[in-house]
Threonine/serine dehydratase (Lacihabitans lacunae), 316 residues
Amino acid sequence: MNQHIPQQTDIVAAHQRIKPYIVKTPVLRSDFLDELCGAELFFKCENLQKIGAFKARGGLNAALSLPKEKLSKGICTHSSGNHAQAIALAAKLLNTKAYIVMPKNAPEIKINGVKELGAELIFCEPNLEARENGVKEIIEKYGAEFIHPFDNYDVIAGQATASKELMEEQVDLDCIFAPVGGGGLLSGTGLSAKYFGKKVQVYAGEPEGAADAILSFKSKKIEKAPYINTIADGLLTNLSDKTLEIILDTVIDIFTVSDEEILAALKLIYDRLKIIIEPSCAVPFAALLKNKAAFQNKKIGIILSGGNVDLAKLKF
């Protein structure tokens, strides 16, 4: 397991390690959305990744980095959805057991995704303490190896490969927008921009109803959101010490957006790109729309993080 902030060589190695198992996701364009924003937009479609989210990259890299003797006792995690599916997929591919602690209010589509991949599900109360206690019990009982959703350098290196691919395909980007929850994708994106980008600046979008990252970014220490109330269910987690350190070093700014702004961005992507994304995934595009005056005539990459949405719950 990697014990240091991922270097350029670590991200290159992670990409080689996971390439046989992941999809090289497409980059989509829209003339209408370019004109709307006054910029050239390049949407990296991780909603079309295995398990429907970028999380497959980090989960697979962390699992594939484990020695065989650790893998033999299985792997475990706690997650509200996409990382859970990533670990379940990794266990299936590596022929080992996955134990997943999920909050009992996790989206049905994500619960079903984990079940279909053959993982053992343990439900808990929807709070961090319950999730962590659930994992502790599994480790004590089975000796399974814990793969944290974001506070893990191998996971971060895996998430970094999404923006690495984007910058290889579109070499002249000015900036990249990513969502921020626990910060695994954002810190990975920041590292990729630092190592592979030509002066590429990284920005984040965060829901107003789970706005801890912007507070942590300003105070330079881990903060909690003043309140939790947002449709972006994938972005409810606090940053960790590992992700905050990288974000402070590599990210220019974090913008918050309301649920109304998230829904407006979601509708535009459904309407113009003709793809399914989940609300959390629309957050970086909503952040750009809200602040488009500052990004005129720029070439902008946007990481569309996932597409695991319960269609019955969509407000439109």
Remarks:
- The chain has two domains: 8-53+152-313, 56-146.
- Strands lie at 27-28, 40-45, 75-78, 98-103, 120-124, 145-146, 175-179, 201-207, 251-257, 299-304.
- The chain has a mean pLDDT of 94.
